[in-house]
Design brief:
216 residues; alpha+beta; PH-domain like; four-stranded antiparallel sheet; three-stranded antiparallel sheet; 6 helices; 48% helix
């Protein structure tokens, strides 16, 4: 099931919608084969007699219960886990009945690193460690497909998001039909606030200030 579009913001688009790497399903698949094999052997070697029928039904019931208890939850967890990169944020969701969700706006991401063992490089899997400002400073996401490409795409979207936010913040508001129109002092204060928040460098601030003064 893809990430629901109703959870996206206005003009927000999904770039990546990734489930954990298929390698995470190898363990449940092997376990399912073992359970089926053991159940089949027990069913086939069941001694004859009046109790053979009920005993075989019991063996089958145990096999089905083992699949439901050990295998199905792992498959459901894989199917309902999403690592989503959009044009505005990173989203991690997992769970079917009980759910867990974590969202990180791209403007709060400070650093993205990935790690892969030799075996994971052969499979195209790895882990992403994302440093962000806020209460949860570091988040590790495991078994990401092609983590290096995801890392590069996150940086690319961070740059685009930062440029879009800077353009929105630096654009002076349009004069209203009523009330005092924005003055040059208001524009200078707005630029100074952007510089204090780190949205503008000193050089950018000085350039925009000169442009503003030239228009006076």
């Amino acid at each position: 099931m893809p990430f629901p579009e109703r959870l996206l913001g206005e003009n927000e688009q999904v770039v990546y919608d990734l489930r954990p790497h298929w390698w995470t399903l190898v363990g449940p698949a092997l376990l399912a084969l073992v359970i089926v094999a053991v159940t089949s052997l027990a069913w086939g070697f069941m001694p004859g007699g009046s109790l053979q029928g009920p005993a075989r039904l019991g063996v089958q019931a145990v096999g089905v219960a083992a699949l439901l208890f050990w295998v199905v939850p792992r498959v459901v967890r894989w199917a309902t886990t999403h690592f989503v990169l959009t044009t505005d944020r990173l989203i991690f969701r997992r769970g079917f009945l009980s759910r867990y969700a974590r969202e990180i706006p791209l403007e709060r991401v400070n650093d993205v690193t990935f790690s892969q063992s030799v075996f994971e490089r052969l499979l195209g899997a790895g882990d992403l460690v994302i440093e962000s400002a806020g209460e949860h400073g570091q988040n590790t996401f495991y078994n990401i497909r092609n983590p290096e490409a995801v890392q590069l795409e996150i940086y690319h979207r961070m740059e685009e998001n930062g440029q879009r936010m800077l353009a929105q913040q630096a654009t002076p508001p349009q004069p209203q039909a009523y009330g005092r129109p924005p003055s040059a002092l208001d524009d200078l204060e707005r630029l100074a606030a952007l510089r204090e928040r780190g949205a503008l460098s000193d050089a950018e601030f000085e350039q925009k200030k000169r442009d503003l003064l030239d228009r006076l």
